[in-house]
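Homework help board

Subject: predicted structure for assignment chain

Our instructor gave us this sequence and asked us to write out the predicted structure in C-alpha cell form, then describe one feature. I got the C-alpha cells but I'm not sure how to describe them. Can anyone check?
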Amino acid sequence: MVEAEAQGPVVEIGRRYLEKALDILAREYGRALEYARAVVADGLGDVAVALLGGRPIGAEIFYKIRLAVDLCVHYYVAVLREYRRRGVGKILITTVERACKSDAYAATTTEDNAAAKALFGSLGYVGYRWRELDKKTRDVLLRATCGYDDDMIFLKGPAPREVAAEVGDAERFGHRECYLVWLGVRRADV
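My C-alpha cell output:
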C-alpha cells in the first residue's frame, strides 16, 4: 500500500484488485474491457486501485514490455467522475511509474481527450500523433500498446525512435494481447 496524500487516496497494487478496477473502467469507459482483463489474466499486466476511505475511486491497468528499453504502458486509467480534477489520476500514474521502474513510459488516447492530454503533459509526457512517427517506430509502438492509428501516444523518457529501435516483445504481445483479443471480441459480436 502506498500513501498518496495525507488523508487522501491510497493506491494499492495487485492483480487481486482486477474486478474492482474493471468495475471502475466499465463505469467510465463502458467498452473494450476484454483487453484489460486479458493482459492481467495472461500474467503480463497488473492493477492499481486508488482507494478513499476504502472505496475504489480510480483504477489503472498497466504492464511492462521489453523493446529497445523497458517500456511501462499505462493501458487503462480511469477515475470516477465525481473524483476527477482532484489529483487522483496523477497519484495513480506516479505510483505506477514507481512500481514499474522502467526506462520509458507510454499511454495512448484519442486526439480529442483533452483531460488525458493535459494530465500526461503535466507529468512530463510528450504527445505524438502516430502519423508523425516513422513507419518502423509507429509499427513497433502500435503493437506494444495495442494502439489505434487514430490515437495519440504519450511518451516519457527516451525519444520514440530510441524506445522502438528494437522490436523486442512487441510482435508477440501485439499478436496475443491485441489481435487475438480483438478476434474474440469480434466473434462475440457476430
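Reply (TA_rk): Your C-alpha cells look well-formed. For the description, you could write something like this. Confidence is low (pLDDT under 50) at residues 1-5. That's the kind of observation they're looking for.
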